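Hey L., structure's done. Input below.
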Amino acid sequence: MKLYISADIEGVAGVVSQQQVTPGNPEYERARRLMTAEVNAAIEGALEGGATEILVNDSHGPMVNLLPDEIHPAAELILGRPKPIGMFAGLEPDAAGVMCVGFHTSARQYGILAHTTNSFAFGRVRVNGLELGEAGNYGAYAGEIGVPVILLTGDDRFAAEMAPLFPESERVVVKQALGQRAARSVAPTVARDRIREAACRAVRRASSIPPFRVPPQADGSPYRLEIEMNSPALADLAALIPVSERLDPVTVRLPAASMAAVLGWINTLSAMSAALR
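Output:
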């Protein structure tokens, strides 16, 4: 049984500040070890549940956060960027399920370090009118290729945001958000125990968990992506794409034939936004 894990850092127990998620300081070095340990807990639980092949994708920022020499030897690891499909690089249709470990809520929502893909560039991301964050967008891509999201871990706000999208999935809360950069967290060892146990249950239940798919447009046409940028200047930049449509001072619309194309546009605009930093 093949199992896929996408690993972020903002939803890890004990992580609350921008310093902890930004390379180049001791707090980040501590946080990346906590991130690696939570991923290992998910791997251990997946193995207990019956997984025989596990692929882990480092999905935060520079995507070189997980410590290769500390990752459980039963798993293979994808590091670095840019890469096809970004946070779900390497996911194949024959995977039994996806686990999203250490994830967070979408931009402009309550939750620890909430954002969607690029906190500088994006305010809101909507696909066919449905507002989605990273787990929603990438989970919809997984669903499009027939793979369910079976486990999600992070803060309480993230669990609440994911409940309507992935109602049958295991959701693990490792901290209670008290603000955007403040939380009441369980001990890392307790978080790992919860993740390991939930990962085991998730793998055993994987075949009964349905994939998530974005509801189609009323006319049955392909996906419509709308991105609310964080400034008119960023929308000016996005509007340079020939197929884009400017809806208002900060919002652009882009057509997409698949969720892979949706993610391609999101990641392209994220990269383009560096020109205005």
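The mean pLDDT is 97. Residues 26-49 form the longest helix (24 residues).

-- N.
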